[in-house]
Amino acid sequence: MKKETVFIVDDEPMHAQMMEDHLKGKYPQFDIYKYTTGEECNDNMDKNPGIVILDYHLDAVNKSARNGLQVLEHLKKAYDTDVIMISGQDKIDVAVECMRAGAYDYVVKNETSFHRTETAIERLFKHRAVVHELDKYKRNNRILTWGIIGIIALTIVLTAMGVL
Predict the structure, then answer these.
(1) Which fold has domain 4-129?
(2) Following DSSP, what letter does each residue of 127-158 receive, concatenated?
(3) Domains of the chain: which residue ranges?
């Protein structure tokens, strides 16, 4: 498995630390950075995270901080990164809103959230592999299509010249 840069954006330091510990145990090759606000996350996007684990509520400490949905919307517009939302909110409409805004998955903070985040990451890796394979097939299809067009064009020209 390749090296991956992961951001954990959560204003609950205990939860963020436990998430980091869990992920480091499962994925020792991950470079993990923790931030308490979306603004800090945004300021460090030059580290090119492949995955951002983003809390829905980010204003427990800093009341003026953007909420997770606002951060998600910004990240999806400005960067090519996958976002897994985490939240204590177990309301379906919140999850749907996050998914519509571009989250890869939505995980409710509870006793299974670390395992569910790990599962979401595994699905994300499989999704990336499928997308990569699809891109290869599309590229090969274009090459074959242009090759066939070239052969047909050459056949027409040679036939018109009386060579064939």
Answers:
(1) Rossmann fold (3.40.50)
(2) HHHHHHHHHHHHHHHHHHHHHHHHHHHHHHHH
(3) 4-129
